[in-house]
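User: Fold this; tokens only.

Assistant: Input:
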Amino acid sequence: MYKFLFFFISFSLTAQIRGVVKDSISGEPIPYVNIWVENETIGITSETNGSFSLDIKEEKLLVFSALGYEIKKASSKSEVILLKPKVFELNEVVISIPKKTKELEIGDSKKIQHSQLSGDKPWIYGKLFKFEEKYNETPFLKKIIFYSNSKIKNAKLKIRIYNFKDSIPNEDILYEEVIVSVKKGMQKNTVDLSKHAILFPKEGVVIGLEWMIIEENKYLFEYKDTKSKKTNSFVTYAPSLVINYTEEENSFHFSGGKWRKRSRAISNSGREWDGKIMTPAINLILTN
């Protein structure tokens, strides 16, 4: 039996605001921008034409973030949002070319029948991998493995990779947009990073899975109420992400424009996840 974790949401009278996100230099629309009402659990993803809409009843401060651009905060009354391209500082480095003669899989994640729904929020779920000295023999990130359970075909999500600083995910270290389409049903997904030649940061690396709240991912989730035995439904966005329960505090989520550390689950019901951390089921394959 599949188990899904979701939140019930109460609705109030709202007004829909609309806008478009564009590049401040080229004027071109920016697709798939992560957008949140600051410090709240209300968010959306811009569509392929840069457009977005949110149901909010008063003026709010919105937080816009996208790979390759500086984070921007703007009033919800602004109809056109201009994001400034980020200038990356290049430090002097010794260039290494992966040999790819060795592999090491790390992470201990596995496929179980517990999944996390997005609801209607563009969460980024991140898993921290701490550096160990033995990784010096296989210092490059070769592949990401994660597990999903989608109700629709070809649901899209983003892959993000961050360094780890001051106890939270920090800067992107994958500078190219990587969008993955996952098949319907329970799937093991593999993302090849070989061409990027990313070295495992000594301070640790966070692998992020970003839900995309876009029309093509939308579907109606149905479930049966255990008390009334009635079938209920609500709109959510694919795919669901398989989660594992761990003792290690290595899980983070991005919401409301900020990174937050996942707390231990407490239900007082004697469930297997009581006192543990819900962590996205992600593994890494390293190479030399």
